[in-house]
Every structure is written in structure tokens, then in C-alpha cells.
User: Which sequence fits this backbone?
């Protein structure tokens, strides 16, 4: 075969048969929705930016970037539902972006800030968090159709990432070197990782309908919460997510006590 006829042969092999020749329907290309994937890309960029800033020793910017990624990640799903632009591509893209922003980035930021002086124990704790985030996301994707929408099974990876980022931010804000309290950072990292893969239930907030009217006092409480965060963002955000991470254990303890009391009651006549 000469070189002149090679392009024609490749074209003939690659071209799908038309309707008249084989009776098959020519496949059509499907695009992707731009708006929700813009938020997902922004969250991915924020997570990557956090890693870069941690490598450069700018831990405050790294922590803030993780919080920005968390906000953008919370918006992309709601925007997709409100604009009816959900897609399988968007769901897969969101999971991959979450792994970077809420799995790899927080682990590397915490390791660079406080754990690298601990040797093997330091990077093992960071890996435990990273692996737990991957397992948490995989379990969430496989149980999406059967899980109760009101509750998360295990601590959500954005909340776990915010817990680590809040710790780094509050330490930097108070001018405390991370290497001065390595065991506290280690405990928080392992606690967040274990909580992600636990069977504890955490309130999801997905039953909140943003299109429904609410009492005036709700708007007042929202305004007060923003004011409270603005007073001292590192401390308030860290305590907020520490309380949320602990809420799963509190709910488990309450249910355990209820079961024990029910078992201790005598059978009714």
C-alpha cells in the first residue's frame, strides 16, 4: 500500500457505518453541563492550591483554601439540582475532586505543618486520613441509593478536612508552631480519619428546603452566625467542626443508653 492511500484506509476503518449501509444509528456526542462543573473545578483548584501553599510554608493560605473548597463543593451539587443539570460525569468528577481537596490536601497540609517531625508515625497518620477519605467517598457512592438522605454514615470528608484545616489555621493565628504540639495534631488527624470510616450517623441537612418560607427568626440566627464567625474565624470554625465531628459520638451514646434502658424495663402486662 502506498503512502498516498494510507490516510484513506485509516479513514475507512475509523468511520462508523451510516444508516443506509448497516442500519445502525450514528453515535452522537454528548456535552457536559458547564455551571455545576465550574464549581467542582474551583473546588479542585482550591485543594491543589492548598497543597502548593503548604509546600511553600504558607499554612494560613493553605487552610483557607481548604475552607473555600468546602464551600464550592457544597454549592456544585445544589446548583446542579436547582438547575436540573445533574449528570453521571458530574458525579464522578465531583468524587475525584473531593479526593484531592478533602483527602490528599488536608493530609499533606497537616503533615507539612505538624507531623513531619514525628517520623513514621507522622506520615502514617497522614496516610490513615487520606485512605479513610478515599474509603469514605467510595462507600458514599455505593450506598447513595439506599442511604437515608437525612444522615451521613461516617463523618463527611469535607467536614473532616475542615477540622484539620481549622486546627492549622488556629495554630498559625496564635503564632504556635505546629511542631510544638505534634501529638495533638496526630490525635486530631487520626480522630478525623477514623470518624470518616465509622458507622456513626451525622446529620446531613439535606432535608432543608431552601425554596420554602421560614420564620423571620431563622434569618436573624443566620445573620448572628455570620457575625459570630467574623469575630474570630479560626477559633469559631475549628470549634464548630470539632462539635460536628463529636456529634456522631454523642448520638451513638444517646442511642446506646436508650437501648440499655429499654432492655432494663420490665415487660409490660
Assistant:
Amino acid at each position: 500500500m502506498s503512502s498516498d492511500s494510507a490516510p484513506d484506509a485509516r479513514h475507512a476503518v475509523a468511520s462508523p457505518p451510516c444508516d443506509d449501509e448497516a442500519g445502525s444509528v450514528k453515535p452522537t456526542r454528548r456535552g457536559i453541563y458547564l455551571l455545576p462543573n465550574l464549581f467542582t473545578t474551583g473546588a479542585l483548584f482550591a485543594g491543589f492550591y492548598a497543597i502548593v501553599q503548604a509546600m511553600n510554608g504558607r499554612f494560613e493560605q493553605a487552610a483557607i483554601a481548604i475552607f473555600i473548597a468546602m464551600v464550592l463543593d457544597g454549592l456544585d451539587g445544589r446548583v446542579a439540582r436547582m438547575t436540573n443539570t445533574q449528570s453521571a460525569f458530574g458525579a464522578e468528577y465531583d468524587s475525584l475532586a473531593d479526593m484531592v481537596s478533602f483527602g490528599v490536601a488536608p493530609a499533606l497540609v497537616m503533615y507539612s505543618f505538624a507531623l513531619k517531625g514525628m517520623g513514621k508515625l507522622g506520615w502514617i497518620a497522614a496516610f490513615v486520613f487520606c485512605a479513610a477519605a478515599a474509603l469514605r467517598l467510595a462507600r458514599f457512592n455505593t450506598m447513595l441509593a439506599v442511604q437515608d438522605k437525612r444522615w451521613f454514615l461516617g463523618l463527611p470528608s469535607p467536614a473532616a478536612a475542615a477540622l484539620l484545616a481549622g486546627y492549622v489555621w488556629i495554630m498559625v493565628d496564635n503564632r504556635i508552631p505546629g511542631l510544638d504540639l505534634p501529638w495533638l495534631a496526630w490525635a486530631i488527624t487520626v480522630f478525623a480519619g477514623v470518624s470518616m470510616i465509622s458507622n456513626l450517623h451525622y446529620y446531613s441537612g439535606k432535608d432543608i428546603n431552601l425554596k420554602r418560607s421560614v420564620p423571620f427568626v431563622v434569618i436573624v440566627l443566620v445573620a448572628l452566625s455570620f457575625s459570630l464567625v467574623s469575630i474570630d474565624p479560626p477559633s469559631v470554625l475549628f470549634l464548630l467542626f470539632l462539635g460536628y465531628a463529636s456529634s456522631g459520638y454523642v448520638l451513638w451514646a444517646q442511642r446506646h443508653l436508650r437501648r440499655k434502658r429499654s432492655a432494663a424495663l420490665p415487660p409490660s402486662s
Observations:
- The chain is about 70% helix and 0% strand.
- The radius of gyration is 24 Å.
